[in-house]
Amino acid sequence: MLELRGSVGKDGLNASDDVRVVQTLLVQIGLRPGLVNGTCGTVTIAAIQKFQGVFSTVPDGRIDPGGRTWKKLLESAAPAAGDPLSGWAGDCSQWTQQKKLRSLEPVFRAKIEQVILTLKNRKLQPSIVFGWRSVETQRKLFSEKKTTVLFSFHNAQFRDGTPNALAADIIDRRWAWTEAAHVNGFWNALGAAGKEQGLVWGGDWKAFPDIAHLQGRPNRALAKVRIESGL
Ligand SMILES: [Zn+2]
Q: Which of 189, 145, 196, 194 has the alpha carbon at shortest distance from 168?
C-alpha cells in the first residue's frame, strides 16, 4: 500500500520520494505533472490542482498524508477490484503486455509505448518479454548465465516494492531471437526507434550485446537507481 510520509504540493514538505509517488499516480490517471523526478515544481502543483478541481471547489494544490486528495488520488489510480494488475507477484514473463507496460517507470513507459507504435507502423510485431522483474528472478537468470549482472534496470522499483522498471526487452513475436529477426531487420529497427526516444539500446554494447534490451538511463546510473529502489 502506498503511503505518503509528508505533504506534497504547494507549501508542502515535498520529500523527494513522496513527490515521486504523487507524480507517478498523476501520470497513471492521465494528468501531466511534468517529469517524474521527485521535484515538486509549478507543473506538478498545477496537475494536483487540476485533479482537485474534479471534486473540490477549493483546489489548494496540496496533498496531505491520509487527507481527502490523497484518498481520491489512490482511488482514481487503483486498478479495479479483482484486476490482476493489482498483484505484482508470480512469473513476470507471463504477464500481459498491458501489465508489463504498467510495470515500467511512467516516463520510460511513454517512450516504450512510442517505440512499439513506431515498430507496428513498420508492420513489425513487437512484444515485451520482460519489463520489470524481481531481484529474485534476476538472481535466477544470473545463475542460469542469462544475465551478467545481479541488479539491472529491470529491477528498479519504488521503496515499497512496486515495480518502476527502467528497462524493457522487446522481440518480434514471430521471430523472437531466431536468425529471422536479423534477416528481417527487427533489431536494427528496435535500436533506431529506441534511440529516437533517447533510450540506450543493448545492441550497441560491444562486449556483451543485448539486442532486445532498451533502457531509460545510461549504465553509469545503475548504482544510483539501485539505492533509489531501496535494494
Ligand atoms: Zn533487458
A: 194
